[in-house]
Automatic annotation (TrEMBL):
<keyword id="KW-0326">Glycosidase</keyword>
<dbReference type="Pfam" id="PF00232">
    <property type="entry name" value="Glyco_hydro_1"/>
</dbReference>
<dbReference type="InterPro" id="IPR017853">
    <property type="entry name" value="GH"/>
</dbReference>
<dbReference type="InterPro" id="IPR001360">
    <property type="entry name" value="Glyco_hydro_1"/>
</dbReference>
<protein>
    <submittedName>
        <fullName>Glycoside hydrolase family 1 protein</fullName>
        <ecNumber>3.2.1.-</ecNumber>
    </submittedName>
</protein>
<dbReference type="InterPro" id="IPR018120">
    <property type="entry name" value="Glyco_hydro_1_AS"/>
</dbReference>
<dbReference type="GO" id="GO:0016798">
    <property type="term" value="F:hydrolase activity, acting on glycosyl bonds"/>
</dbReference>
<feature type="active site" description="Nucleophile">
    <location>
        <position position="362"/>
    </location>
</feature>
<keyword id="KW-0378">Hydrolase</keyword>
<comment type="similarity">
    <text>Belongs to the glycosyl hydrolase 1 family.</text>
</comment>
<dbReference type="InterPro" id="IPR033132">
    <property type="entry name" value="GH_1_N_CS"/>
</dbReference>
Length: 466
């Protein structure tokens, strides 16, 4: 049987400004928090000094090469491209009254280029970066003032691009703030839980205000949230493992609950009390949060397990999310477990919980690619990974889940978020650049390029159930 996808399914890919654009101070752009993390989102904060350089300063030079890259995406048949606006291109310090016209004009050109090929933009307002000036002057999202600055930014870009962009997202993987506070909310890594959750609260209020602004300004526009879909299974059938799994899944589902349901869930009251977490929530905040998102978007790369066995937990401390490995799954070169069925499970969990359309906006395999003597790049491992995940998306759709689209992470090689590496490649398009920043930046089609083109052209019918 062939895989069935909706007629207007949005096939495409996803990138982020700070991982592809480069031109980190060009045309009036200010420093972003990402510019201060040359070793990735889990790396130390490194102040910039004159003459220094980081791999993200150039990245893959999408800022100057976007026409070539968008043409390649169009060759694959993309219906949709997810990218982000670099907030510090629009408001270099974050608190200016008036936006930077050169920054606005750049995204006009990008969206016009996409329109030439009929590619719909899906735009994230803040993808792992914010103006560094806001962290210096106000303490990032620790300050209520940042809500005002974000709303100004959101309204500015909604007004500017309301005829060009109809699909928006607020914050990328908003729940990652629990694991990387500087990346997520501009706070020091050693911040208290109260400080982190207060900053997260400000971000949730700002997200709701952006949703309201989008609904007011963008006619026919839809705006969603974005979660890191870190679904967890109990390692055993011990009731204690099951209960702890529920608790840990709620750590990230909480962000979806607030944004999709318009209020804090009751289980957070107990969590705050038992962990001595103090969060100031005003009546005005509660009113603002009632403006809910139109759809749920999320990333999915892997699942993990939960156990109450401390000895096994200690072996998982080095993992990106402290996940206990699943003994039934294989892993990627970077230790990320490969679980296609987990994507079907997650889609059903989210749809059962929220009854809102879902959008898979990140999914992919990071791997080291090699160029053969004839110039080809035979990334069958990537094809197999994506094929098996997309087959499970089709199964979820057959389950009755409403899925709007699928944008694979990194359709073109880019600087990885976690450790700022080029060697961890996700793309259908190879970019000639290494971890030290050497290379010509030449683009080259991989085997997966032609595979994904066939998937899109057939609307999923070419996928193989294995």
């Amino acid at each position: 049987m062939s895989c069935k996808f909706p007629e207007h399914f949005l096939w495409g890919g996803a990138v982020a400004a700070n991982q592809v654009e480069g031109a980190y101070l060009e045309d009036g752009k200010g420093l972003s928090t990402s510019d201060l993390q040359p070793q990735g989102i889990f790396g130390a904060l490194t102040p910039r000094v004159a003459g220094d350089s980081g791999i993200k300063d150039v990245a893959i030079d999408f800022y100057h090469r976007y026409p070539e890259d968008i043409a390649l995406f169009a060759e694959m048949g993309f219906k949709c491209l997810r990218t982000s606006i670099a907030w510090s291109r629009i408001f270099p310090q974050g608190d200016e009254e008036a936006p930077n016209e050169a920054g606005l004009a750049f995204y006009d050109r990008v969206f016009d280029e996409m329109a030439k090929y009929g590619i719909q933009p899906l735009i994230t307002l803040s993808h792992y970066e914010m103006p560094y000036g806001l962290t210096q002057k106000y303490g990032g999202w620790g300050s209520r003032k940042t809500i005002e600055f974000f709303e100004r930014y959101a309204r500015t870009v909604f007004e500017r691009y309301k005829h060009k962009v109809k699909h928006w997202l607020t914050f990328n993987e908003i729940n990652m703030s629990l694991h990387a506070p500087f990346t997520g909310v501009g706070l020091p890594e050693e911040s208290s839980k109260s400080d982190i959750y207060q900053a997260i609260h400000h971000q949730l209020v700002a997200s709701a205000k952006a949703v309201k602004a989008c609904h007011e300004i963008v006619q026919g526009g839809k705006i969603g949230n974005m979660l890191l879909g870190g679904i967890l299974y109990p390692l055993t059938c011990k009731p204690e493992d099951l209960l702890e799994t529920q608790r840990q899944n709620r750590d990230w589902l909480f962000f979806g609950d607030v944004q999709a349901r318009g209020a804090y869930p009751s289980y957070m009251t107990r969590f705050f009390r038992e962990n001595d977490i103090q969060v100031t929530i005003t009546p005005e905040d509660k009113q603002a949060l009632r403006e809910t998102i139109d759809f749920i978007s999320f990333s999915y790369y892997m699942s993990g397990c939960v156990t109450t066995d401390e000895a096994q937990n200690n072996t998982a401390r080095a993992n990106i999310l402290n996940m206990v490995p699943n003994p039934h799954l294989a892993s990627s070169e970077w230790g990320w477990q490969i679980d296609p069925i987990g994507l079907r499970y997650l889609l059903n969990v989210l749809y059962d919980r929220y009854q809102k359309p879902l959008f898979i906006v990140e999914n992919g395999l990071g791997a080291k690619d090699s160029i053969e003597a004839d110039g080809s790049i035979n990334d069958d491992y990537r094809i197999n990974y994506l094929n098996d995940h997309l087959v499970q998306v089709a199964e979820a759709i057959d389950d009755g889940v409403e899925v709007m689209g699928y944008t694979s992470w990194g359709p073109i090689d880019l600087v990885s978020a976690s450790k700022a590496e080029m060697s961890k490649r996700y793309g259908f398009i190879y970019v000639d650049r290494d971890d030290a920043g050497n290379g010509t930046l030449e683009r080259r089609r991989k085997k997966s390029f032609y595979w994904y083109r066939d998937v899109i052209q057939s609307n999923g019918n070419s996928l193989k159930k294995r």
